């Protein structure tokens, strides 16, 4: 919700190259309830632990669990936040040592490994199909071997944040931006990119070494940038067997276009900066130094709480195959090794209800996974003067398949270094993509 997508390794950690749906915030690991307070309660009560990686969502869960405990006074829920940079390193250690929380968040890049290893409760077997309606795209994403392995919690899609004043001054219609054969995006970005002397990027006097305002973000951001562009070019990230396939002719077309925005036309910030600071583009948008920022609802609160610019949200940029968003989600999973199985199942049931997820929407955290709670999120932002329906439309349209498979995280970590070189322009696109693909597939033994 606060930051761009990150992964656990240092090379990947600042870029957001593995999908997480809700992006991480920067707080340190903490338990948001005081364990000592529980000791004063009845010795008959059971404590269920709940772990997540985002401190922006923690208050919503605290509120939800207050309501849960009011209805189930014999069960207390303790929330702990482990920041994203440590989350995926700590998870396997805690599972192997028996110290893992009873319930915890996972994303699509990581759940299959733990499901296959028998670490997660089988939701289909434990809770059946008699529950409230959940976001189908998230259900599909976390269904493996004909079973659902988590309770949908939040979901997101991609749209285009824009600076109304900059766009109006340049005469750009953000609802009609396309790339490819009918390219209206590049000319628009050239009008929107301006150097310190007031020259736009389509001017002969433009100084690419002294840029004051960039057109848009074009960094190595999987969810917001290159998965949509890849799909819009007709390409795919993975084959049915899980092997990477982004080095296709369509992939070369998409990545060439993206990296040309950076290295050839200078309408997007240098990869030398964004490769090491995945939040840079959003920070620039907040400061009014970037006209367009393609991202998801996880950026809403950070932008709304930190900027004075006049901004809005438009549909994501379309390509040769139309506008194709990524649609992702986060689930709460049950620890198969929990010592409090019945209590844990009661909490999981609660986490799948409209009542249980209402605070996520009411506090503007993200679109809840329980369909009945989603209006809370829409209404929260409507009261702030922001129409978030564009994200709903984006998710309802054509979407790109999110990364999948038990080894996709290892494969992604293997291909990232070479992909970063592609964005830097230090290796030809076609060569770099093939080398990245091969490294990723080798890491997955595919």
From TrEMBL:
It comes from the Bacteria. InterPro entries: SBP (IPR006059). Pfam families: SBP_bac_1 (PF01547). The keyword Cell membrane does not apply. Residues 34-46 have a biased composition (Low complexity). Keywords: Signal, Transport. The keyword Signal applies. Residues 1-28 form the signal peptide. This is Putative arabinose-binding protein. It comes from Trueperella bernardiae.
